[in-house]
Each structure stands twice: as structure tokens, then as C-alpha cells.
Amino acid sequence: MSFPKGFLWGGATAANQFEGGWREDGKGDSVCDHMTGGTATTPRYFTNTIKEDTYYPSHEAVDFFHRYKEDIALMAEMGFGVFRLSINWTRIFPRGDEETPNQKGLDFYRSVFEECKKYGIEPLVTISHYELPYHLMDAYSGWTNRKCIDFFLHYCKVLFEEYKDLVKYWLTFNEINCLIMGVGDILSAGIKCEDGPAQVLGLPSTREQLANRFQALHHQFIASAKAVKLGHEINPEFQIGCMVAGGAIYPYTCNPDDILKAQQDMRMNYFCGDVQVRGEYPHFTNRMFKEMGISIAMEEGDANILKEGTVDFYSFSYYMSTCSTVDSEALKAAGNVVMGVNNPYLKSSDWGWQIDPKGLRYLLNELYGRYQIPMMVVENGLGAMDQVEEDGSIHDHYRIDYLREHIKQMEEAIGDGVDLIAFTPWGCIDLVSVSTGEMKKRYGFVYVDKDNDGNGTLDRIRKDSFYWYKEVIASNGETL
């Protein structure tokens, strides 16, 4: 068993957590630009008005906007074959509904892609990664409004035509299923809201909230399908994929009710994939909507649009597994139904995420068995607190251990017959955590000198994992 020749090794980032350059060169406000900092215990807040003397992490992030040449050179030093990044929609269309794009924004990303090509790095571009223009939230209530489909398609058309000779790999929406998991009202859907906590995990949702989320998701499905078809018309060589928040889900016990609950919860991996890969809503949709007491509006022709706009590959994030149960006492003890019940056979990270490399092999087999198209693992990694030693070194053996075991299980999945073509660990250079707004929750091979309050030099420092990953790539996964 080994990784195939031409396997794409690299890393992943997102503009709202990495880029910075807020309002420079004509950039407009995104919904994430209205989210304050936070911690693991203090939630981020969303404010409709940007407040003075309040810290908004995305405004500077780690300043890739001014340091992209330095950062891409570091990626090249590691031997990257692919760099996953997102385009900030508001750098191209500041309000989201304009006819004419911002030329300075187009020029910036052209420079980034040209820098990648200089080193032989393939850009893997996420078109929408939690960066909806704030104006589309304020004026249209985001993706609940079908008009956003046309705004998105116009945005895609500009990108596809502008970069058709520089970018081959595209993703339409990041972690598209997060929209219906109770965490995506603002970031994923841009549903208009009052000032308040930016994310609510594990709390019951009203029927109206559920209906709004699924309606917004349907509009994103249509937008994605149309974008795939449009992209293939502009450049038949384009490879356009979906991106889903993935997770292995096990029954907590061998109680048949727990097994059925785990099967039901695994649908978080399948609901969006079925629509985007197979081109139709899955078999369980009607009963699911009936039990939720909701219905969504579909226009004539939507079914054909979904069928004609299926993706070329399936990509997903994988950080952890969880257990499902109907045992109310176990759920109560877990305290967070979104994260599920802890598996007693696994260890957890400092943020309570259970570490399960074998779950990645399990999930890869489940997904490939269902869809039979190429797979990419486009997010994976360990968020941890790194310590800079007096000599400037950073000994992150825990990150190496985490990634080593996950890479081993990817290799096992390839041996099982899974067509896995790429691996881009998350936050290859330290960036702001989207869930908590922190800097101390670090994922990167490269340390960025910045703290939770936005203080620091932004200097880049290679960690031990930098040199380890360089050897992994050079050996195509043979040296771990």
C-alpha cells in the first residue's frame, strides 16, 4: 500500500481567517468581518455595526494580504503540490450584487495564483467559505432569498473567466452541510439577525429556523449545480467539487436504538453529498422533512438543474468522530449534542475533540462506496497551544503524532480501494479559529506571532512539524 504517484500534498486556509487586508483596495464587509473575537468559553458576537475599540479578528487575520509571497514560499519549501485557499467574495464584489467587479481584487488573486504557479503549486479555490457579503445579509437575508443564486453565478462567471488558465480545482461552498447543523445561520447562510452570539451549539432549533436553513441550503444546491455547469462550459478542464463537514459516527452501545440513531446521524455526511454527487435529494428526505414539520419551495426545473450540475469529486473535512445514543442520561452528561457523546476508547484534544485516525479510514470507505468519485481530505489537523522555546524552536510532536496516524489510515483506505487524490491539512500556517475567534488554537506547520487580542509581530516561525511534513511530501508518504 502506498500513495499514488501524483498525489496532491498541501495545506488549507480560508480568507476570513487568514487574509486580512480589511477594506483595502476596495474590499467590502463580509459577515465574518462583523464577528468579534472570543475564547473557548466566551462566544464570538455578531454586530451589525462595526464597533470601535472592539476586536474583529478577520480585519487583520494573519495578514496574508501583504505577506502572500513569503507564505507561498514557505509552502513551496515544504514541497506543496496544492494550496487550498478561498476568495473573499467582497474583495471581488464589495456588496455582492454589483454588475462590475473590483479590478484591484481580481488583480490581487491573480498575483496569488501566479505566485503559486511559479512554484508548481496547484491552487484549490473555495468560492464561498464563510465570506458572504454583509450587504446580501442586510438587504436580502442571505441565502434564504433566491436572488442570491444569480449574485453567486455572476461572481462565479467572473472568477472562472478571469482565472481559467491559472486555476483547475474549485470548490463551490465550504462545509455546505454546516448550514443545517445549527451553526451556519450567519456564516453559511447569512440569515439576517440581531446583534448577539455568533454561533449557538447544541441548542434546540425552532421550526422556522429549520425551514429557513433548508430553504437557504436548497438555494445553495441550485447555485452550486449551475456553477458546475457554467465552469465546465468555460473550461472543460475544470475539476469542481463539493465540500462537506465530515465525521465518523458510531453507536454508543449495541442497543439497536443506538445503532439506528447512529445510522440516522451519519446522514450529515450524505444529505448534501447525495444532492451534489447524485443530483437528487436522498431517499430519506420526505420523512425527515415531515418529522421536522417543514417544507421547502422548489421551482419548476430545479430537479433538472441538480441533475445537470453534479460535481467531479467529493471533498470533506475530518477532525474527529463521535458516538450517538438515545440514552438521555448519557446525552445530558455529554452536555453538547452537536459534538455527541464521548467514545471511552479515544483521547481528546485540549478543545474536547476526540482523536480518531481510524475513523478517517472508516469514513473514506463509506463515502467512496456510496459515491465512487475521487476523494479529497481538504481539512484535518490538531488545534493545540504551541510553546515558543527560548531558542525560538517549537516542538509540536503532538501535531506530528496526530497527522502521522491520520496519514497512515488514509494509506490504508487507498489500500482498500478508495480513490483518494489529495490531502490539505487545515491551517498550514497558523490562522484565526473560526469557531472561537482565537489565535492560541493553532493548527499550522508555521507559527504566527500573534495572540488572542491581536497583538504580535506576525513573524513566521517554522515548527518541528514543518520539517517533518516536508519529509512526508518528499517521500510521497513513505517517511512518517
CATH-assigned homologous superfamily: Glycosidases
User: How many domains make up the coordinates?
Assistant: 1
Q: In the CATH scheme, what's the topology name?
A: TIM Barrel
Rg from alpha-carbon coordinates: 21 Å
CATH architecture heading: Alpha-Beta Barrel
Please, what is the average pLDDT?
Answer: 95
Total of DSSP H or I helical runs spanning 4+ residues: 15
Order of helices and strands, N to C?
A: EHEHEHHEHHEEHEHHHHEHEEHEHEEEH
Q: Describe the strand arrangement of the main beta sheet, using strand numbers.
A: 1-3-4-5-7-8-11-12
* Assigned CATH class: Alpha Beta
Instruction: Measure the end-to-end span.
Output: 14 Å
Structural class: alpha/beta
Low-confidence stretches: none
What proportion strand?
A: 5-15%
Report the biggest beta sheet as strand number plus sense, adding barrel if it closes.
8 strands, parallel, barrel
Overall, the morphology is globular
Q: Count the E strands.
A: 14
What's the helical proportion of residues? Answer: 25-40%
Question: Please, could you describe this protein's structure?
Answer:
This protein has helices at about 15-20, 65-80, 90, 105-120, 135-140, 145-160, 205-235, 255-265, 270-280, 285-290, 300-310, 330-335, 355-370, 395-415, 465-475, and strands at about 10, 45, 80-85, 120-130, 170-175, 195, 240-250, 315-325, 345-350, 355, 375-380, 420-425, 445-450, 460. With about 475 residues, it is an alpha/beta fold. An 8-stranded parallel beta barrel has the order 1-3-4-5-7-8-11-12, surrounded by 6 helices. A hairpin with a 5-residue loop joins strand 9 and strand 10 (about 355). It is globular.
